[in-house]
Every structure is written in structure tokens, then in C-alpha cells.
Amino acid sequence: MSHPSLDAPVPAAGIESAALGTAVPATPSHTTSAAVTPVRAAWREFKENRIALGALSVVFLIIALAVAAPWITPQNPYDIGSLSLMDARRPPGYVGSEGYTHWLGTDASGRDLLSAILYGLRISIQMGLMAGLVGLVIGTTLGMVAAYRGGRIETVIMRVVDLQLSFPAILLALVLVALLGQGKTQLIAALVAAQYAYFARTAYGAASAERRKDYVEAALAVPLGGSRIVFRHILPNVTPPLIVVATVQIANSISLEATLSFLGLGLPVTEPSLGMLIANGFQYMMSGRYWISIYPGIALIVLIVAINLVGDQVRDQFNPRLKR
């Protein structure tokens, strides 16, 4: 006499699920929980931190204002022909010769400071994103190749990275900008060269841990190609720490670009960034014309602090040691 459980028919879906090692949802609630993707779960956890959510809103607001600057600002601060020295160093609320109000005043060249700040934010965000993305690609590739290949390749790559990390980023950027000259391309190249090592070191540490796991050994036994193993199997598992580093390095790139511009080694004077605007008004601080430097400085601080607050929350979410 056979056992009743063996005589009972098994649905085809159950056979397929058992073969695949997965469970078939029995209730609608299971279906709802299974539909929650990692991105949705991360966003749900991110929203629980009101400070980080407010900082993210500030970042999006600044980006929107910077992108819309040509349409919402009363003046193009990069158009030298439209500037009037008669309106130079005017206080906030001054009505200029063009007929519109300079709500934040003007600088020493007669630029509307509100327009100059929004255009400067465009440059800061552009430099930070470009330098961060290019540095992420270069550094991640080098770090993962060093972790996967090992041997002499690992030694050469990581010793160069360690050597670069021993120097301050600002020092390397100053030397490279002095050698390459002024311009957006030169500035991005200097920022990338000064910061890609942080991505390389992070990618190397995470990829080295993944390299010793069983799924990599199984992929090698198939065998699969090296590039496929690195970029399709290891890379997705080392992405979380790279996202954290990328968030921090974007803020560092913005700060570094502002420092170089403040020292006169950034973009040309015809395209003033926030750092250059701060430098232009620095000499007038003691004469009471505080707005020329203070307002661009406030805009720069708000942008950097907001990005860092977002980065801190992202770091806490991806750090398993902080999970309770």
C-alpha cells in the first residue's frame, strides 16, 4: 500500500519550482513581498532618515536651478559685453542700469551675483560628476584587474595606487593643472588623476574578497572568460562600496575644483566658478562688501554638505556592521 503523500498529484509548477530550488508563493502577501526589489528596499530605508531625504531634495533643487540657469537668470555672467562697470560692487537689492534688480548684489566686474552663482553651480556640478564618473571607471577597472589577475600585474598596479595615495590630492591636482594648463578638459583630467586611486583601492579590496568565493571558482571551472567573470559576476557584488566612494568623491571633486579656482588655477576668468567668485570678492571683505564672497561661499557649502549627508546615509545602508 503506497503512502498517501506519494499518491497525491503534484502540480507542474511545483515540480518546476522544486527543480529550480525556489518556493512558489502561496498567498498574495508573499507575491507582494517578492516584488520588492533591492532598489525599492534601499529607497524605503533611505526615506526613514529625514535629514538625508532633505539633503537629497536640496541636491535635486540645486541641480534643477543650475540646469535652468540660462532661462531663469536675468543675465549671462559669461557674456563680457553685457557687463557694466557702473553696476560693479553694488549691494543686494540694487536696481541696475539694465532695469532688473540684483537680489544678491554684483561683483567687481558688474556681474549679477545670483546669475553668477547659478552658472557657477553648473560648472561645479559638471566638474564633480565628470571627474567622479571617469575616476570611477578607471579606478574600478584597475582595482578589479589587479584583484583578479594577481601576480606582477597586481603588484605594479597597487604599488602605483599606494604611492599616489601617499600624496595629498590637492598637491597632485596643483601640479597637474600647472602642467596641463587651464580649461575644462585639463581640469577634469587633473581631478581624475588625483582621485581615481580611491576607487582603485576600494575596488581592489572588495574584488579580492569576492575572488576567493565559491561562485568565482565555479565560473573558472566551467570555464568562463576572464572579462566575463570580472564584469558580469564580480562587479555587481562590489558595486555597493563603490557607490559610497563615488558619492564622497563627487563632493571632494567639487571642493577640489573650487580650491583650484580660488587659487587662480581653475577655469579661465571668462567662466568664473564658485571658487573664482569667492576669490574675486575676498579682497573686498574688509571694506564691507561681504556679499561678493559670502553668497558664493554659502552656495558651495550647502551643495557639498548636502551631498555628504546623502553619502553618509548611503554608506550606513551599505555597511552591514551598522545594521541592527
Number of strands: 2
Tertiary shape = elongated
Which structural class do the helices and strands define?
mainly alpha
Main sheet properties: 2 strands, antiparallel
Which value, in Å, is the CA radius of gyration?
Answer: 27 Å
Structure, briefly:
The protein is 70% helix and 1% strand. It is mainly alpha-helical. It has a two-stranded antiparallel ribbon.
Q: Can you characterise this structure?
A:
The chain is mainly alpha-helical and 324 residues long. It has a domain at 117-322: MetI-like fold (Orthogonal Bundle), CATH 1.10.3720.10. The chain has 14 helices and two strands; from the N terminus they run H-H-H-H-H-H-E-E-H-H-H-H-H-H-H-H. It has helices at residues 4-7, 12-20, 28-34, 38-47, 50-67, 69-72, 113-149, 151-165, 169-180, 184-211, 214-221, 226-262, 274-282, 291-318; strands at residues 94-95, 101-102. Strands 1-2 form a two-stranded antiparallel ribbon. Strand 1 (94-95) and strand 2 form a beta hairpin.
Characteristic key phrases:
MetI-like fold; 324 residues; mainly alpha; disordered N terminus
How does the SSE layout of this entry go?
Elements: H1 4-7, H2 12-20, H3 28-34, H4 38-47, H5 50-67, H6 69-72, E1 94-95, E2 101-102, H7 113-149, H8 151-165, H9 169-180, H10 184-211, H11 214-221, H12 226-262, H13 274-282, H14 291-318
